[in-house]
Design a protein that fits this description.
single chain, about 260 residues, 6-stranded parallel beta sheet, Rossmann fold, Transcription Regulator spoIIAA, 7 helices, alpha/beta
């Protein structure tokens, strides 16, 4: 794990973090820090939980908690559309942003492990586009290590109270002119699974032009992350245009090709 619980207050728009905890105090501390950041930044907090979970957090006027009650099969597209509606409503109410917090034990009643991983992978595009912040709270007592490992891989960052560091490992932001993404920090086997769904979601917005990937602020990318970018490039009309690449990064991409990638 890579980030201390105090960083829950300092997450930035677009962050989507898997937060692992193994005891109730750690969970409470992370959520309290998240609320502290919302209070400071004039953000609304939407807290989704299982019926049996208690909020158990400091009072805050912008905090709304509700139990998840899905009627029929869980529909990821409908759920993500609902998050977008909530975001729009919060902004209309005068908030400068929205922080979503999900106590992911609610998913045990609605999703298989594979569908949960697929949902977490898909929702990256929502956070990258919308500028909302997502904190997914995973109780290590309720999820198998194998499942948690897959869940971590599709989040840009994973954190826990017993970790260290002061910023998310990776940050992924959508850019509008030109259409593409800006990568910050590090992307490797632990979080590289978040890249492809965000790029795929941008294809309709690119008008057949290459998607731009700005890597000027990328500190590190391993073969897993580079391979994910190349797989995406092969599915995108026009391929990828990569900006700000260090010579070592460009060399690795070329060695892993062929793929429709140009450097600028």
């Amino acid at each position: 794990m890579r980030a201390h619980a105090a960083t829950a207050a300092d997450l930035a728009p677009g962050d989507h973090v898997c937060w692992r905890f193994g005891d109730d105090d750690s969970r409470r501390d992370a959520l309290a820090g998240y609320i502290d950041g919302a209070r400071r930044d004039n953000h609304k907090v939407l807290h989704y939980r299982a019926e049996a979970d208690e909020p158990d957090v400091p009072e805050f006027d912008g905090f709304v908690t509700q139990a998840v009650d899905v009627t029929g099969p869980f529909d990821p597209d409908a759920w993500i559309a609902m998050l977008g509606e909530v975001l729009g409503q919060a902004r209309a109410e005068g908030f400068d942003g929205v922080r979503f917090a999900g106590e992911m034990t609610w998913s045990r009643g609605y999703l298989t492990d594979d569908r949960l991983v697929a949902y977490e992978r898909q929702v990256n595009a929502f956070y990258a586009h919308s500028g909302a912040i997502g904190l997914c709270l995973y109780d290590t007592r309720r999820f198998e290590p194998r499942v948690l490992a897959e869940i971590e891989r599709v989040h840009p960052d994973t954190a826990s109270a017993d970790g260290h560091g002061d910023a998310p490992l990776g940050r992924l932001a959508v850019t509008g002119a030109p259409v593409g993404v800006r990568l910050t920090g590090e992307f490797d086997a632990s979080n590289g699974g978040c890249l492809e769904p965000v790029l795929a979601d941008l294809i309709p917005h690119a008008g057949g032009h290459p998607l731009v990937v700005d890597v000027a602020a990328l500190r590190f990318a391993d073969l897993t992350a580079v391979t994910a970018l190349l797989r995406a490039a092969r599915t995108i009309p026009g391929g990828l245009r990569i900006l700000g690449a260090e010579p070592s990064f460009e060399r690795i991409v070329r060695l892993c090709g062929p793929a429709p990638v140009v450097f600028a």
